[in-house]
Amino acid sequence: MKTIKTRFGQVEYNPDNLLHFPAGMIGFPNLHNFIVMPNKKEGPLFWIQSIDDPDIAFVLTDPSNFFLDYKVEPDETEKNYLNISADEECFVLSVVTVPPDQKITLNLTAPILFSPKTNRAIQVILENSDYNSKTPLPS
């Protein structure tokens, strides 16, 4: 086990369980390794904490919890980044923004594709999408 000091306090993690972004995240190309923070509250939101920069953490969610028709399928290049074959499971996640006014938005134009088999993830940009990078949660 290793320990990292974060905004959440001292956090122990197993290096074998890191969530790895081979290409980093959009705007954060040097952040490759994250841990999923234990969820202390029930609900669809959770945090990932950067190991590379302890000051950086993101709130994520499965956008299909809010937008039932939201679907993203990885292409061949994305499957290669994830080290998965066509029939292997891939989850779609969205970065959540919680501004001071509490009007929560999801970034549906730049989803994160995650393979639970390989613990690898990539953030992609959807071209020609009707979705928005600041899509409000439905009321």
From the alpha carbons, calculate the radius of gyration and give it in angstroms: 15 Å
Q: Return the CATH topology.
A: BH3618-like
Largest sheet: 9 strands, antiparallel
Q: What are the secondary-structure elements, in order, as H or E?
A: EEEEEEHEEEEE
C-alpha geometry: globular
Question: Strand content of the residues, in percent?
Answer: 25-35%
From the coordinates shown, what is the CATH architecture? Roll
Number of strands: 11
Strand-pairing-aware structural class = mainly beta
- Helical stretch tally: 1
| Termini gap | 42 Å
Q: Which bin fits the share of residues in helices?
A: under 10%
Mean pLDDT: 93
The oligomeric state of the chains shown is single chain
Poorly predicted tracts of residues: none
Give the CATH level 1 class. Mainly Beta
